[in-house]
Structure formats: C-alpha cells, structure tokens
Design goal:
Blueprint (H helix, E strand, L loop, with lengths): L1 H9 L2 H16 L3 E3 L2 H8 L3 H13 L3 E4 L2 E4 L2 H7 L3 H13 L6 H11 L4
Antiparallel strand pairs: 1-3, 2-3
Helix pairs in contact: 2-5, 3-4
C-alpha cells in the first residue's frame, strides 16, 4: 500500500499508466483487455483527460492500441522501460507472496520461439 502511495506522489502519469497497463496485462493473460480511460483515471487518481493524453502518446509510439476501452499491448518491453520502478517492486512482492504469476499468452509464445531458436 505504501508503495502505491509513494508512486502516486512521486512519479509522473506516463510511468504510472505504463505500470498499470503492465499489471493488467500480467493478470489478464491476454494481449487485449478492457479498461476505460475513466476507470484508469480513477485508479491513478487523475483526470480522464490526462489518461487520454498519456495513452494517446503511447499509441503514437506504438506501445499500445486502444479503442472504446479495448486496450491491446503492442510492445511490452517498451512499456517496461517506460514504467516506473514500482512495477518491478510490485511484481517482486506478488511473486514473494503468491508465487510466480502465470505468463500471458504473448509471453508464452515469445519464450517458445526463443526456446526453438527463432528470434
């Protein structure tokens, strides 16, 4: 809880949004999931217009694609680089308490491709 409070106070919106999208992606087990800008704004404690601007920039950079609440993760690695260090801290806590989270379908395909020698 204190990690989230510190994150909300000290980090800018884009890294916090990237963190939330990564956490949602981890738990959805899919590269697509439904989150409205209003819901994200409520969770991050900002105005919806701030989410619209930050998500629009992420979409222009081709990190995500979104339309009417449906978000698609296009470049997970880019989101990880954009996210604040709180994402990794939260992931470490999750793993410590609950064990390894299940991989998303996209991560499974990437690992399978790497295991088979494809780039």
């Amino acid at each position: 809880m204190s990690q989230s409070a510190a994150c909300a106070h000290f980090h800018e919106l884009s890294p916090r949004l990237a963190r939330w999208l990564l956490m949602s992606h981890d738990r959805a087990h899919s590269s697509q999931f439904y989150l409205t800008h209003q819901f994200l704004a409520d969770m991050l404690g900002v105005r919806r217009s701030g989410i619209t601007v930050a998500a629009g920039i992420m979409q222009q950079q081709q990190f995500i694609r979104y339309s009417r609440g449906m978000i698609s993760i296009l470049d997970r690695n880019a989101l990880k680089q954009l996210a604040c260090e709180c994402y990794q801290a939260g992931l470490d806590d999750y793993q410590r308490v609950l064990g390894e989270p299940q991989q998303s379908a996209a991560e499974q395909l990437v690992r399978q491709g790497c295991a088979q020698g494809t780039p």
